[in-house]
Design brief:
Elements (H helix, E strand, L loop, with lengths): L1 E2 L2 E2 H14 L3 E17 L2 E19 L2 E7 L5 H13 L25 H4 L3 H15 L5 E18 L4 E17 L2 E9 L7 H15 L8 E7 L1 H15 L2 H5 L18 E5 L20 E5 L2 E2 L6 H6 L8 E2 L8 E2 L4 E5 L1 E2 L6 E4 L1 E3 L10 E7 L2 E4 L2 E5 L4 E5 H6 L3 E8 L3 E14 L2
Parallel strand pairs: 9-17, 15-24, 16-23
Antiparallel strand pairs: 1-2, 3-4, 3-6, 4-5, 6-7, 7-8, 9-24, 10-11, 10-15, 11-12, 13-14, 17-20, 18-19, 19-22, 20-21, 22-24, 23-24
Helix pairs in contact: 4-5
Length: 436
């Protein structure tokens, strides 16, 4: 990519050379992309928004003191470097073993680029909306909104030790919000490849969800078998379980799993792992230039590993697991997941009657250390034989996610791929459901 008359690669080289000349280890994280986003206004295609982004983050280290700065202006890279250096002078020193060194990735390549998306043609985004609207036609629900998007982006991580890794990937997505009476429905889908996106399913299910949930009945407070959808499971995992696998949280005693390495903490049929070679967040190297790898955090119920970036690994005498991620170019990298997966013994979990939760509201309020939570069920119903029977108007679910994962009644054969994770349905027995 060209930035004026100077390429991004040339800017990165200049930053690293300037940092080294001043005696600093220097790391550059660069991100650029373009995309198209279309919005629905009811059944009409409304605003179209095109975007181009360019951003760069610089991290410098000297004597264990770390400084970071970022900019979205290519011509200001020298000021950005000076800002990072100035910040490092005020940082407390920490144990530091150096930025990542060049090394081979665990696999040769990734399949993350779709030529049919790369042109970012507005007609492609328009076609996705029209297909979604067509599938919703004839279902008695009003469309409140929705969107389609296509994008292509490239990230680069480079440092003063010679690491230089770039990855270009594509993405596309659709979503729809619907209303029927006082009931609402929402569905979405995303993928790195146009052929894997299913706008028809999104449009149909968003409408059917709102229609089905209308005129829901009450449920008495009590203990019930509960089936959580992949989305519901993902919400609870993201709020509580994934943070508990961070080495930083473990060592600072902010994790339920602190001191439990090697112990059977979960149900023996449960496994949790990060597979960075598949999904929309796939990467050969993490945000610090460390090669990624599959990490088996929990295998057959036993806690086997925690996630580390370089900073946390050096502080606690561990090794980086290639788990550094960035939400953008601003700030420093943090510990995260690339493609989090839940797996285990698969079976048919839908035969017997249970309360089904399509989604939950309030997972972010869960206690990240103890695992206690109380959430509202969204688009809940009774389910029997894999069929939703009677909608439930209003219900709360309370419990402890770690206790639930110690005794799983079943893991479904079906899974949903969220792009950054692959999650099945889970069935639990004797959970506390609070009705009106």
């Amino acid at each position: 990519m060209m930035t004026g008359a100077v390429t991004d690669a040339e800017i990165i080289d200049k930053i690293i050379a300037a940092g080294k000349k001043l005696g600093y280890e220097t790391e550059v994280y660069f991100s650029a992309g373009r995309g198209i986003n279309l919005e629905l206004k009811g059944k009409l295609i409304g605003e179209a928004c095109g975007s181009e982004t360019w951003g760069m983050g610089i991290r410098v280290i000297k004597d264990g003191r770390i400084g970071c700065s970022s900019t979205n202006s290519p011509s200001r890279w020298e000021d950005c470097l000076k800002s990072a250096i100035a910040g490092s002078k005020f940082a407390d020193p920490q144990e530091w073993g150096g930025v990542a060194k060049p090394s081979k990735p665990a696999v040769a390549s990734l399949d993350v680029y779709d030529e049919s998306i790369a042109a970012c043609d507005i007609s492609t985004a328009k076609d996705l909306l029209e297909r979604m609207l067509s599938a919703a036609d004839g279902i008695a629900a009003d469309i409140a909104g929705g969107s389609s998007s296509i994008s292509v982006g490239r990230t680069t991580v480079a440092n003063s030790e010679g690491v230089s890794y770039s990855l270009e990937k594509t993405g596309c997505g659709v979503s729809m919000e619907t209303i029927s009476g006082t009931s609402t429905g929402y569905e979405f889908d995303s993928s790195g490849f146009l052929k894997d996106l299913n706008p028809e399913k999104v449009g149909r299910e968003a409408c059917e969800m709102a229609v089905f949930s209308k005129d829901g009945g009450e449920i008495a407070t009590g203990k019930y078998d509960v089936i959580l959808s992949p989305l519901s499971v993902c919400q609870l995992l993201s709020a509580v379980v994934i943070p508990s696998l961070s080495g930083r949280n473990v060592h600072s005693k902010r994790s339920y799993l602190e001191g439990k390495l090697g112990e059977c903490v979960f149900d023996g049929k449960l496994s949790l792992y990060d597979n960075p070679f598949e999904g929309q967040s796939a990467r050969l190297y993490d945000a610090e230039g460390v090669p990624t790898k599959r990490i088996d955090f929990v295998k057959d119920g036993v806690v086997e590993a925690f996630a580390y970036d370089l900073k946390t690994a050096y502080r606690y005498n561990e090794k980086s697991t290639g788990s550094a991620v960035r939400a953008g170019t601003g700030g420093a990298p943090v510990i995260g997941m690339h493609n989090f997966c839940l797996d285990g013994k698969r079976e048919d979990i839908f035969d017997e009657k249970a309360v089904f939760a399509n989604g939950i509201v309030g997972a972010h309020t869960a206690n990240g250390v103890t695992g206690d939570f109380s959430v509202e069920l969204s688009n809940a119903s009774w389910m029997s034989g894999g069929v939703k029977t009677d909608p439930i108007k209003s219900a709360m679910l309370s419990g402890n996610i770690f206790d639930m994962l110690k005794n799983i009644a079943g893991i479904s054969k079906e899974s949903r791929d969220f792009g950054s994770g692959v999650i099945p349905y889970l069935r639990f027995s004797d959970l506390s459901v609070i009705g009106r």
